[in-house]
């Protein structure tokens, strides 16, 4: 029997003037995750799929800074997004 996995999504924002680390600004599963992804697509906000990272992020509260143990993987996502933005402006 095939296991059906519920879609999960989270959005982070980083403003070094306000926070020490990226902050969770949206998070959800199922329909809520689909809405987060739809809004990202609608607003041309790049996103990356990472099953391990999303499992950790959906456990955090909205407004919570990501914990230090996630810094490395979130930094890699932010570099990915920065590179996408750079390519889009060429």
UniProtKB/TrEMBL annotation:
GO BP terms, alphabetized: protein secretion
InterPro entries, alphabetized: T3SS_substrate_exporter, T3SS_substrate_exporter_C
GO CC terms of this entry: plasma membrane
Classification via Pfam families: Bac_export_2
PANTHER family xrefs: FLAGELLAR BIOSYNTHETIC PROTEIN FLHB
Protein name: FhlB domain-containing protein
